[in-house]
């Protein structure tokens, strides 16, 4: 009896990704709830911060001349995306868990890295889908005096920051999968690990929306995001295989 | 496969969940082509043993070889030669029957997977429902699809955990018929509460009680009624 030829990892990865996207297209469970949640969060920020800008003071104690909440855009956008990502990460393995498919997948000759890599790719796709809607809304409601170049720069920041969120999200969702208190554990583990991403992506966004793009600041934050994605990519590569160990 | 043509060889298998030992020193062997039924009351350790052989649980103590590979160290090499079917079909309810089988064919690297899923659906009598979502299936149809998922990759070792649970008489008969058509050389371990059905499908019977084997012997021509009485005595 000879062992079967190792199935190509690319084919397995694409099958897993296609399955996740197909399920999402059919049920729309994750993206719709992410979009609704993001819209609610932005509304809260708009009312919470927008009405407070008039209270800001200069270091001399004089009223600041703030006529928009553009300076807060980075924080608003990335707090919204980080909190919205918790929903996607929390739902990442719901079909497998609820429909008991996980055991069948774990018995298949699929490297754990491929399982989690495909999950990271589907998380990335969900984040992009949400940002396609959220980003124009953020520019419409929160940003004044920035052009298409700023929008493109923030979109680029999203593409890099999403990598960090997706890699971290897949790793932590896998780790929390068998935990009894996973609904509590997941945000408690995920959000603090995301803090550097929120700070850097918020900084890059801030640099991009201030009328003219502050290239030095933007580049610095973007490089940090790239390095963070690379480091966590390597951490994930080294640990993915052990995530599903009982 | 290991020397001696054994698909499964386990010695002194122990698995604890907290303070409780679900398995407390079990030896298990399965030769190629052999069918073993594992019986026992709830909590006897049947499913734990099956999940261990499926490489889903690590033994806390003891040694285990599956399809000639040490588990858990070389479990990845054994996977893909194992088919696992539980009381759930382990398929996605929101995908169609065909999409489910295409997905698992890709995971298993099934050669020529273009035709194979349709052939597998035909084998379990679901060809006409190939493009219907699984959530529209009856319990029996979904379980037959689960069987098609398992047989798709032509596993050397078939692990079945209460596969008849929740099936009506016709569904159970169809499942038994599909199992009976298994290819030569394939080993089967069936975990069940149903003594008579288990004996009818197996060559060898193991009875577990409180994580320990109370009986392990060939089925032979034994009388199911007499065995039932003995089984009741063993697990009392």
What does this protein structure show overall?
The complex is a heterodimer of chains A (246) and B (236). By secondary structure, chain A is mainly α. Chain A has one domain. Chain A is built from 9 helices and no strands. In chain A, helix 1 (9-27) crosses helix 6 (112-142), helix 2 runs antiparallel to helix 3 (73-90) and helix 8 (182-209) runs antiparallel to helix 9. The longest helix of chain A has 31 residues, at 112-142. Chain B is an alpha/beta fold and 236 residues long. Chain B has a single domain (34-44, 80-235), classed as P-loop containing nucleotide triphosphate hydrolases (Rossmann fold, 3-Layer(aba) Sandwich). In chain B, 33% of the residues lie in helices and 28% in strands. In chain B, the strands form 2 sheets. Chain B has a 6-stranded mixed sheet, sandwiched between helices. A 4-stranded antiparallel sheet of chain B has the order 2-1-4-5. In chain B, a hairpin with a 2-residue loop joins strand 9 and strand 10 (212-218). In chain B, helix 3 packs parallel to helix 5 (139-152) and helix 5 (139-152) packs parallel to helix 6. Chain B is globular. The model of chain B has no long low-confidence stretch (mean pLDDT 89).
């Amino acid at each position: 009896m000879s062992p079967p030829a190792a199935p190509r990892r690319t084919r397995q990865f694409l099958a897993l990704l296609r399955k996740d996207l197909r399920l999402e297209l059919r049920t729309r469970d994750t993206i719709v709830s992410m979009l609704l949640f993001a819209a609610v969060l932005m509304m809260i920020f708009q009312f919470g911060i927008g009405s407070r800008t008039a209270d800001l003071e200069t270091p001399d104690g004089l009223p600041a001349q703030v006529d928009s909440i553009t300076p807060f855009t980075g924080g608003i956008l990335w707090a919204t995306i980080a909190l919205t990502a918790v929903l996607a990460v929390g739902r990442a393995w719901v079909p497998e868990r609820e429909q008991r498919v996980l055991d069948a997948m774990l018995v298949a000759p699929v490297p754990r890295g491929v399982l989690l890599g495909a999950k990271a790719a589907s998380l990335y796709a969900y984040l992009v889908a949400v940002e396609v809607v959220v980003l124009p809304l953020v520019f419409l409601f929160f940003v004044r005096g920035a052009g298409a170049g700023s929008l493109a720069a923030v979109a680029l920041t999203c593409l890099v920051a999403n990598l960090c969120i997706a890699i971290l999200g897949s790793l932590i969702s896998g780790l929390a999968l068998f935990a009894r208190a996973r609904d509590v554990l997941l945000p408690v583990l995920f959000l603090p690990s995301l803090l550097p991403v929120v700070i850097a992506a918020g900084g890059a966004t801030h640099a991009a929306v201030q009328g003219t793009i502050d290239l030095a600041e933007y580049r610095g934050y973007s490089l940090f995001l790239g390095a963070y994605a690379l480091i966590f990519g390597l951490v994930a590569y080294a640990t993915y295989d052990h995530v599903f160990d009982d | 496969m290991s020397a001696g043509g054994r698909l499964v060889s386990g010695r002194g298998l122990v698995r604890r969940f907290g303070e409780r030992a679900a398995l407390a020193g079990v030896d298990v062997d399965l030769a190629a082509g052999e069918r073993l039924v594992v019986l026992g009351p709830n909590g006897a350790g049947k499913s734990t043993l099956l999940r261990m052989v499926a490489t889903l649980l690590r033994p806390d103590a003891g040694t285990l070889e599956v399809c000639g590979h040490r588990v858990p160290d070389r479990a990845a090499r054994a996977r893909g030669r194992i088919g696992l079917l539980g009381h759930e079909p382990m398929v996605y309810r929101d995908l169609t029957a065909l999409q489910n089988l295409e997905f698992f064919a890709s995971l298993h690297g099934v050669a020529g997977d273009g035709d194979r899923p349709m052939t597998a659906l035909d084998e379990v009598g679901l060809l006409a429902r190939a493009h219907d979502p699984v959530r529209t299936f009856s319990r029996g149809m979904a379980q037959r699809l689960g069987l098609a998922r398992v047989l798709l990759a032509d596993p050397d070792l078939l692990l079945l955990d209460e596969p008849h649970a929740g099936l009506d008489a016709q569904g159970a008969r169809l499942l038994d018929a599909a199992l009976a058509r298994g290819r030569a050389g394939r080993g089967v371990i069936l975990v069940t509460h149903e003594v008579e059905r288990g004996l009818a499908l197996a060559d060898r019977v193991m009875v577990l009680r409180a994580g320990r084997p109370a009986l392990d012997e060939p089925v032979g021509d034994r009388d199911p009624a007499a065995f039932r009485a003995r089984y009741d005595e063993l697990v009392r």
